[in-house]
Amino acid sequence: MPKTKFAVIVFPGSNCDHDAYHTAKHVLGYDAEFVWHKETSLKGADVVILPGGFSYGDYLRTGAIAQFSPVMKAVSTFATSGGPVLGICNGFQVLCEARLLPGALIRNKDLKFHCEHVRVRVEQTDTPFTLRAAKGQVLRIPIAHGEGNYFADPQTLEELEASRRIILRYCDESDQVSEASNPNGSINGIAGICNEGRNIVGLMPHPERACEAALGSEDGLVFFESVVASLASRGALTA
Amino acid sequence: MSTVDAAVLERHGLKGDEYARIVAALGREPSLTELGIFSVMWSEHCSYKSSRVHLRTLPTQGPRVLQGPGENAGAVDIGDGLAAVFKIESHNHPSFIEPYQGAATGVGGIIRDIFTMGARPVALMNSLRFGPMDGEHGARTRRIVEGVVAGIAGYGNSIGIPTVGGEIVFDEPYAGNPLVNVFCLGLAGADALVMGRAEGVGNPVYYVGAKTGRDGIHGATMASAEFDDKSAEKRPAVQVGDPFMEKLLLEACLELMKGDALIGVQDMGAAGLTCATSEMGARSGSGIEIDVMHVPQRESGMSAYEIMLSESQERMLLVVKKGREPEVEEIFEKWDLHAAHIGFVTNDGLLRVKDHGKVVAEIPNTALVVEAPVYTRPMTRPAYLDDVQQLDVASLSQVQPQDTFFRLLASPTIASKRWVYRQYDHMVRTNSIVLAGMGAAVVRVKGTARALAMSVDGNGRYCYLDPFRGAMLAVAEAARNVACAGAQPIGATNCLNFGNPERPEIMWQFGEAVRGIGEACRALDVPITGGNVSLYNETDGNAIYPTPVLGVVGLIEDASCAITRAFRAAGDNVILLGETFDELGGSEYLKIVHGLVKGQPPRLDMVKERSLIELLGRAASAKLLRSAHDCSDGGIAVTLAECTFDAAGVGCEVDVPAAATRLDSTLFSESASRVVVSATPEQTDAVLQLAKEAGVAARVIGQTGGTRLKITVAGQSAIDCDVREAENRWSSVLEGFFQRQAS
């Protein structure tokens, strides 16, 4: 049986592309391939990762220009047919700009970039990227962003809550979502969401930075292991 | 030529005798364009004319050195067929005038120096000096601090190179002249280093990157003059950075370097196109002919003079093999960059600049680069030294140890720098196995078992009191810091920040500091592979403290042996390596508590220092140590406290031997060559045995455990507080300065 294959999209200005690739391929031993943004095919990938970074230098708005890259048509087709897509940090911003996820990511409330480990609580486990986590499980994962303040209008927010599409929230030492535990001002402490079909997930934290004990946390592994398990359960592949 | 009079020369920062040398080198009067070219190449910043005679005395060779000074950056062999390529540079003057862009373009410039060598940049650090954040110039300083930190973050975060560590000091002499020194390290194949050479007659010369504008004209000349109240008017001479453009250039250049179409490359930093063309030609004894009409321009109507002297950022000059142009252009087009063919290599040794076919400058490259003036400037020992070196400790008022300890923890120089490094992406590339704030930065080398530790250190106050010993102490501290991470120091780079070299007292400080660096580096067998000199750091005639900053790189053979400053668990033994002496001269304690900058800096025995550094490496690689932390600012009291911070709440109870009759001297003395380590009870004997063999004084002073920090001196109680309380006083001091502003 072939190994699960990850496509890591590379926009000009992506800078966590190597990290996602390294984790999928060298830490976990899956197949991984970079896909340049000017390409129009995903090269038969089973999972697509839109990595972190500063695509197009964050010019205009974060993620605003990358949504027009040629490869995004293929990503969109892949996603609408149910393929698992994970947007991390700038990848999340691109997914929002491309309207594959609702809402927007605006500047952190203190207007400063934050790079640090945070605690996030898994809210939902029925997505391909969280099915191996336990509901309420708290993960220690780094964030690194200046614009991670999730915002959506009240109606969208209500929909997200009602349809259980908020999958990660920032939480404190006692696992509670609080003002003090919120690093960027995100509405309802949102750190990650999914689409209606639950196959497209956007996260501000960087799970690929938390997959090795040497880096101080392995809590990010669950996102990669989940999607591999999810594909295996669909009978398409084995890990 | 009648265009050149005294006023023109002054505007170009050239002296009368220098003009005479230009005429002699050309055999005729220069044109205005030629004069401009000479003025930037012969500026202090580019020519090192005041410092060169001293720099020549530094040790630059060693078995690991692959590239010493003279190229865009130095390189050392780290095994596995790899080289560590690194350098430190200053961007002091631009950062004072325009903090965000000044600091950002400093980062951009040092990154280009590294990837120009064919190396993938993997780590950034910085060494910063500002004035006090309160008091007379507090508001201005806070604005500069916010701008510099945001500029470093804005550039480094965007381009995706982690800022993994550094140091920040706050002291009065930097209020009117902050220091922004940036360090970058990259990895390259040891046999794949790329040089800044222009070889092969007829080979095409390409210009790639941002378009040329009028920004930064005479930036190098500005960096070679003192500040006065007109400095703000020089703002147009500060460039604007574009990290996205540089990210594209970085990726495109590294992709091009994988093939063999490239001959040489150099970035256009200080003195822009002029420096890149003449240095590349001079290094290989060739000439370069370009026509400025082919140079992509951002503004209309630019003259050849302006194009040659512009310091617009994110531009590279490349020489490629003739016939390979299509593949070169294809790579740049992939990255949406335009590579402009602006000229070719010649065999006449001349820099020939044309404007629409008409020759506007024709100068031998050697005249610009090799034959630039070299001055042996007069040196005089400053008179102030006799006074400031006198310190009568007995006259100091007695202090309450715990209150004093708390005051030191809250000193901005000692306090946690989390407010700063949290703004830097210090984890991208997933190599940071020791996170910022935990000691020397440690970056693993993927694909190998190894890791590199790095530290930047300097102490201007020590150098003010004794530049020779102060500079030696800077080398020792940086080397000791990487040793505390478990590394063997293998190479160093220096950034020498001083005042006006035309003043004999400043030149004496410079000469003494370089002598100190040389002596310390020779004693440790750590070669200097490159660096940067920043002179004229004065505002309204007041010089900064002489501030040599050392960046030391160390090698850890097995990355899993890396250690940090923090205690790991209760029940370990706390061991003090080295001895504490009655040495309060130049200490943070003396400054913060008694308001004095006096005395002699701590003594330094290089034989003992080397033994200590080697001992740390041996003990760490045998996995005998659980933590290691250098004793420096604030003495052993602050060091022990820092061992308990970020340590999951593990405290300690120790008894320190008395170094003097006064308690303050034992607790806060900054004696050199000391390290606090911790080890399990089972491994303690092995550590002590190794120390004995190395001839390093070692003593178990207590144990880790509990939630309190208890320090007694020869049985007499000195400090007894909750670790949380101490940590709270230390952890958010910097935030406090800015929150107060916001409210």
What do you see in this structure?
The complex is a heterodimer of chains A (239) and B (743). Chain A has a single domain (5-233), classed as Class I glutamine amidotransferase (GATase) domain (Rossmann fold). In chain A, 21% of the residues lie in helices and 24% in strands. Chain A has five helices and eleven strands, in the order E-H-E-E-H-E-H-E-E-E-E-H-E-E-E-H. Chain B is α+β, with helices and mostly antiparallel strands and 743 residues long. The longest helix of chain B has 22 residues, at 138-159. The radius of gyration of chain B is 26 Å and the shape is globular. The chains are: A alpha/beta (239), B alpha+beta (743). At the A-B interface, helix 1 and strand 6 of A face helix 8 and helix 10 of B.
- The backbone outline of chain B, from C-alpha atoms, is globular
CATH topology assignment of chain A: Rossmann fold
Question: Helical residue percent of chain B?
Answer: 25-40%
Number of domains of chain A: 1
Rg of chain B, alpha carbons? 26 Å
Q: Identify the biggest protein-protein contact and residues per side.
A: A-B, 33 and 32 residues
Strand content of chain B: 15-25%
CATH architecture level-2 label of chain A: 3-Layer(aba) Sandwich
Fraction of helical residues of chain A? 10-25%
SS-based class of chain B: alpha+beta
Oligomeric organization of the protein chains: heterodimer
The stretches of 5 or more residues of chain B where confidence is low (pLDDT under 50) are none
